[in-house]
Amino acid sequence: MTVRTGLGVRRATQPDARPLLPMLVDAFLDGPVADWLIPNRTERRVVYYRYFRLMLDLGLRHGRVDTTTNLSAVAIWYRRGAAPAPADPAHLQQLDLACGKYAPKFHLLDAVFAANHPPMPHDYLAYLAVDPAWQGRGVGSMLLHHAHKAIDAEARPAYLEASNTRNRDLYLRHGYQAGEPMQASSEAPPLWPMWRPPNDGGVGEQVRTVMLPHRRSR
Known about the structure:
By secondary structure, the chain is an alpha+beta fold.
């Protein structure tokens, strides 16, 4: 797949956090999940600044953060093993402080993600954000293509959760398979678990029913 944006991709570093933070907030500010998490948009922006500062710092310390040469987009990846990572009490406390009275919904969303996560080694795309001014110009696809080259070189699968149908359809075009939608509660919007099989001659197909679970998230 060839994506022409006039931009390049590089590994983000700690000094990039300051300019990337407002872009992350703007990219995720509107949408069904955002409306459910924090109905008031003004409060949402305030909380999102604290929340994504925490998520970006976590990614820079423990994951791989890719960005574009003009910092118009970011992808935060983690390498996951077969066993789920144990909960970090310090991180949970930081999440409570960042999200305030909305923390229970964030914890509920994390619990649904954890319950539906594939029980096998894979690369996990936690966040893909594109500056609204650059959306629809192939920037997100460029970041995906960059990451997939490295993932395919190791014949590793990839996993993510799509938060709306537009994102789901983007990932479908990049070789992901969509599972049954899951919900954090009956009032929460649907999210789609998505799996990209490894470039291993089709072995990844064998885990389809494992990583795309039946409804068990309510």
